Amino acid sequence: MSLETLASRVGFLISRSSTSRGLIPTRFFSTTSTKMALESYTFGPYKIDSREVFYNTNLSYALVNMRPVVPGHVLVCPRREVKRFADLTVDETSDLWITAQKVGSRLESYHKATSLTLTIQDGPQAGQTVPHVHIHILPRKGGDFENNDEIYDALDEKEKELKQKLDLDKERKDRSLEEMAQEAEEYRKLFL
Question: Which residue from 28, 67, 150, 180 has the least number of CB within 10 angstroms?
């Protein structure tokens, strides 16, 4: 009998991550988030807590947003740190958009929205503050903005606030990790 089989029968998970090797009681992880809890994620130069990630593939992951513009505003990123959209491989591009399509569809339904805004700010002059390609997914409802295109102004404003926070390390107005982890846990259920 293999060690993996034995460990699973007695309720343990074998960790192969570089930060913690050994047996971990499985009761600490739900079956959906076990793999995500053991993986590490980065967003540009920032380490992302795995509790913020609610969906992943071999090439992409989706995480809740620190400063959402509307309820359900999330980000989809390639796993590999890539600064510009044109620098993604064909496989990464395909996987990123397929992931965005799947995530967007589930969140639109979950939030009882009627539309989605999917946008990429590709480069600093386009408003990108974190040098890692990412798609913003925003579930939309009638009347959420007086003029429909104000969503882009709101995104720009949130990006500017984030840039100030990152550049100046001002007092945070961000959501807490606990708030984001709770939201991510709700979204994970959408992919069971």
Answer: 28
